[in-house]
Amino acid sequence: MEAENHTEVSQFLLLGLSEDPELQPVLFGLFLFMYLVTVLGNLLIVLAISSDSHLHTPMYFFLSNLSFVDICFTSTTVPKMLVNIQSHRKDISYIQCLTQVCFYMFFSGLDSFLLAVMAYDRFVAICHPLHYTVIMNPRFCVLTVLISSLIISWEALLHVFLMLQLTFSACTEISHFFCDLPQILKLARSDTLINNIYLYMATALLGVIPITGILYSYSQIISSLVKMSSTVNKYKAFSTCGSHLSVVSLFYGTGLGVYLSSAVTHSFQSSSIASVMYTVVTPMLNPFIYTLRNRDVKGALGRLLSRAVSCL
User: Fold this and answer.
1) What is the pTM of this model?
2) Distances (CA, A) of 64 to 42, 172, 215, 286
3) What is the pLDDT of residue 158?
4) What CA–CA distances, in Å, run from 157 to 36, 101, 106, 154, 186?
5) What sequence ranges are listed for the domain G-protein coupled receptors family 1 profile (predicted)?
6) Domains contained in the chain, CATH given
7) Are 114 and 148 a contacting pair, CB within 8 Å?
8) What mean pLDDT is predicted for residues 7-17?
9) Has residue 76 got a pLDDT over 60?
């Protein structure tokens, strides 16, 4: 089949996680359940933080933003997969695929930046407590999120612009359950050198730089904890970092799994399973990690649910 110009490509075909017809109802039910849990859990955290004045602090401001981004991150990929399973179709339009690539890059990058900023917040709170309110003032927090969003949006849009220059065969099959950029680049009929170079640069910007900041912040935090004489203060400081460390480990651990599975193996099932952990399971578990380890969030959720029940 001859290559067609990218403007003539009307759709791609998403092969999904499995082509076994008997597994489709199971996959639909499983992913629908995980998606609903993800949306409900993260939405409850956003509502609890916004409705409780005691949680109007920088740490919980970033947590509410992280929960909102997790909802959007999962919503970028899962609903389309559910629609395709339910309708017994595999197609995704060219425009929908571009949109999915753009938002996937944006929300995954923003997740990474928010985790880095949250680590910095804990670093300032523990290592420079007397200057915390001055450094982590509301204006700084809002500007940090806005500037991060602006930088990452330009990065995501440039990915889309470079993808628009590529050519594909008609009805190109993507061995994934969503439009994963590395998979798409492998299927392009035109030269993808510039795309791959930019992809590696963006990965370094959105992966290496934030994780370096996180590692530096926690190295300073650990150094400060060692110097503390009070066991109570050590436990209190560690408890505020425990949830964040768990989320960071889960996010970057599964992200590394996606990268390694794509680089080491050519099996699309292995890559897809790793991507499920990264795009679906991690955002679903984040609310549970924070609520189970954080008394303030649990208290706010309890008060929110009590008010909701009393209004019924």
Assistant:
1) 0.89
2) 8, 39, 23, 11
3) 94
4) 29, 9, 9, 5, 20
5) 41-290
6) 6-311 (1.20.1070.10)
7) yes
8) 74
9) yes
